[in-house]
Amino acid sequence: MGVQKKTRKFAQVDTLVLIDSGLRINLDQVKRVIGQRDARLKKNQAKGEIESKRKAKGDEVVREMYVLEDNLLLQHLIHHSPQVSSSLFFQYNTALVPPYSVLVDTNFLSHTVQHKLELLETMMDCLYAKCIPIITDCVMAELEKLGQKYRIALRIARDERWERLRCDHKGVYADDCLVDRVMKHKVYIVATNDRDLKRRIRKIPGVPIMSVARGKYVIERLPDAPEK
Fold it and tell me: Which pLDDT value is given to residue 170?
C-alpha cells in the first residue's frame, strides 16, 4: 500500500507554543482575525457602494458624451436645404409675368446716365412688355450721399412715375437690401451693373438680372426674354 498523503484541513492552524514572559499560548485557541480590506466590513461595504455609484455616474457621463458626438455627426451629415419658392419650376420662375417689377440699383442708374438712355422706354424695348421701375429707400439714400456727381441719376430716381419701396431697416447696405428682398419675394428683376451684386444674385435661382451693355439694356436668366 502506498502512503496516504496528509492534507491540511481548511482553517486549520498548526499547534505552536509561544513562550513569552512565561506564558504559553496555543494557536489552536486563537481566533482568526478579519483583514482590514475584507468586503464583509461595513466601512468597506460603504466604500464599495460609493465606488459603484461613482462608476455608474461616470458611465452615464460617457454615454451622454457618445450621444452628443452622434448628434453632432448627424448634424454634419444631414444636408439642410433652404425652402424653395413654390413659384419655381426647376430654374423657371412662374411668378415673373408682365408687368415686370424691376429693382433698380445705384450703379444701373449711373450707367444709364452715361449712355444717355431713357429708363422706362429702354426697359420696355428690352423686354417687349410693360415694366415698373422700383426705387428703394436704400438706393435713394445712397444716391443722396454720393453728391453732385450723381445729381442727374438722383433726379431720375425721384421721378414720380416710378414706384417707391419703403425700407423698414436701418444702416443696411443697398446691395444687401436688394439681395434680401429677392430672396424673400422672387417677383423682381434686379437691374444692376455691379459685379459683386451680380455674382450674389446669380446664386439665387429664378431671379433675372438686367444690365447696361453696348448702349442698351440686356437681360439674363429670363426664359421668355426676346432674342436680340
Answer: 75
Supply angle C-alpha 142, 164, 145, rounded to 5: 15
Residues 184 and 187: their CA atoms lie apart, in Å, by: 9
Query: How far apart (Å, rounded) are the C-alpha atoms in residues 202 and 183?
Result: 11
Q: How far apart are CA 16 and CA 120, in angstroms?
A: 123
- What pLDDT does 89 receive? 52
What pLDDT is stored for residue 112 in this prediction? 95
How much is the pTM?
A: 0.60
Can you give the three-state secondary structure of the chain, one letter per residue? CCCCCCCCCCCCCCCCEEEECCEEEEHHHCCCCCCCCCCCCHHHHHHHHHHHHHHHHHHHHHHHHHHHHHHHHHHHHCCCCCCCCCCEECCEECCCCCCEEEEECHHHHHHHHHCCCCHHHHHHHHHCCCEEEEEEHHHHHHHHHHHHHHHHHHHHHCCCCCEEECCCCCCCCHHHHHHHHHHHCCCEEEECCCHHHHHHHHCCCCCCEEEEECCEEEEECCCCCCCC
Could you report the average pLDDT of every consecutive run of 10 residues in the chain (228 residues)? Answer: 59 47 50 63 68 71 71 63 58 80 95 94 93 94 90 93 87 86 91 94 91 92 64
